[in-house]
Amino acid sequence: MHSGSIPTRGRTLDYAAPVYDFCEPLLLMGRLASYNRAMIELLGLEPGHRVLDIGCGTGTLTRAIADRLDPAVGGCATGIDAAAAMIDVARKKRSCAACRFEVAAAEQLPFEDGSFDAAVSSLFYHHVDRDLKERSLREAFRVLRPGGLLVVADMHRPTTFMGRLISHAARWFLMQPQIGENIAGLLPELMLRAGFEQPRLHAMFMGYIALFSTRKDQ
Ligand SMILES: C[S@@+](CC[C@H](N)C(=O)[O-])C[C@H]1O[C@@H](n2cnc3c(N)ncnc32)[C@H](O)[C@@H]1O
Predict the structure, then answer these.
(1) CA 198 to CA 194: how far, in whole Å?
(2) Distance between CA 95 and CA 33 in Å, rounded?
(3) C-alpha 158: how far from its chain's center?
(4) 80 CA distance to ligand 1 centroid (A)?
(5) What tens digit of pLDDT does each residue of 7-27 get?
(6) pTM, whole model, 2 decimals?
(7) Angle CA(46)–CA(47)–CA(51) in degrees, nearest 5?
(8) Most exposed residue of 74, 107, 143, 157, measured as fewest CB within 10 angstroms of its CB?
(9) What is the SS3 assignment for 87?
(10) Which residue's CA lies nearest to atom 24 of ligand 1?
């Protein structure tokens, strides 16, 4: 583990930080930009919004969100990741006036209750076990203001042959039971248990990554 990283049972990616920006577009088969755009559209951003990106990795999505905010009216995108090496890359490559990056665990967020208008998370929940999925969703709920929006893109019940092939292969080759929980369709139920409204499924990418949104009640 990188010296500045936060100890967590989550699968952190310190070791992948130097090559992550090269690998992710390949894994998303050239659809990274449209994938990020779909999440950002759902956020319904306003210039002054405060947005949290949970498990931000090297900060590509955090920065794309920040580019739509205005720091002069309080707009800020905050990316957190437990892997210090990922946050180092994010700070070097994606820093701007409307974004900040912090090393933090999603299951123990260092933020006040109600301090964000929206939270987003891409490809993070399949890195943590059921207990941490629940705890990090409860933390997302806590730090959102009433009426705040949560947008999640992550592995879910596959809907196509290729989706089934890719997600089950990932579960067994990477020996990641956490992926198995996602494939079994656990995320929406855990969002409800954390206190969120009934999640809406907006789209499936490549037959195995679901795009959800849900809200913290007013
Ligand atoms: C597949 S990457 C996704 C990165 C980015 N969101 C994206 O879409 O490219 C998953 C990230 O979750 C981070 N992670 C794993 N467990 C974590 C935890 N408990 N708290 C915060 N981040 C964690 C990993 O270090 C990794 O950067």
Answers:
(1) 11
(2) 19
(3) 19
(4) 8
(5) 999 999 999 999 999 988 888
(6) 0.96
(7) 75
(8) 74
(9) helix
(10) 12
Tell how far the Cα of 209 is from the centroid of ligand 1, in angstroms: 15
89-132 pLDDT, tens digit each: 999 999 999 999 999 999 999 999 999 999 999 999 999 999 99
Please report where in the chains the tokens 């809907």 appear, as a residue: 159
Over residues 140-162, the pLDDT tens digits come to: 999 999 999 999 999 999 999 99
DSSP state letter for 105: B
Assigned token pair, 83: 């892997």
Closest by Cα among 140, 10, 138, 178 to 82: 10
Q: Which two tokens stand for residue 201?
A: 């499924």
Task: State whether the Cα torsion 62-67-71-75 is positive or negative.
Answer: negative
The CATH number for 14-215, chosen from 3.30.499.10, 3.40.1350.10, 1.10.3720.10, 3.40.50.150, is: 3.40.50.150
Domain chopping of the chain, boundaries? 14-215
